[in-house]
From TrEMBL:
SUPFAM superfamilies: Sigma2 domain of RNA polymerase sigma factors, Sigma3 and sigma4 domains of RNA polymerase sigma factors. This is Sigma-70 family RNA polymerase sigma factor. Coiled coil: none annotated. InterPro entries: RNA_pol_sigma-70-like, RNA_pol_sigma-70_dom, RNA_pol_sigma70_r2, RNA_pol_sigma70_r4_t2, RNA_pol_sigma_r2, RNA_pol_sigma_r3/r4-like, WH-like_DNA-bd_sf. NCBIfam families: sigma70-ECF. Residues 29-94 form the RNA polymerase sigma-70 region domain. Residues 127-173 form the RNA polymerase sigma factor 70 region 4 type domain. Belongs to the sigma-70 factor family. ECF subfamily.
Amino acid sequence: MAKRDVPPRWDRKMQQRLARGEAAALGELYDRFASLVHGLAHRVLDDERAADHLTRDVFAHVWEHPDAYDPRQGPLRTWIAALTHRLAVQRLRATETAALARGGSGSVEELETKVRHASVAARADYIVQSMPAPLRAALELAYFQRRDYRQTAADLGVTEDEARRRLRLGLQLLSTAREAVSPGAPGTPPGYGGAA
């Protein structure tokens, strides 16, 4: 297991390449994380076009500020997810606040509720995408195919105890999605690795 103060080699090298201005590095980064960024942006903004724009903004920010990422704070993937989330929440707040100012329906409280719900949903998506494949497979069988732990065990070719363990761990990870949105800073999930 890697120590917290020793970032993964790929993350360090990618940051160094971006800092040198290697356009190929940005392309690799985009290929690796574009679906994550777009998915999180879409989850928060609930708008395909806005998610496309935000995806471009995230990668532009990474390109322009590669030193903003501190490899000692966690994986590059987590930092990019936090950056995406922060920018998406800012955009959602700005868009919704402008709509309220133009006389749209709703209130500031409803806006904050919408932001919190979007944050929890985005965090849950990130958790599911990031969890180990065996846990994700067990949860998908249980949730989407309505399998109990015995059927999940048979489908995965594991013992019933192992199926229960995978389901329990997966659900424990998912339960942190709601906890991650702190009431003092709506929409800022510390579980992404802190401020970006």
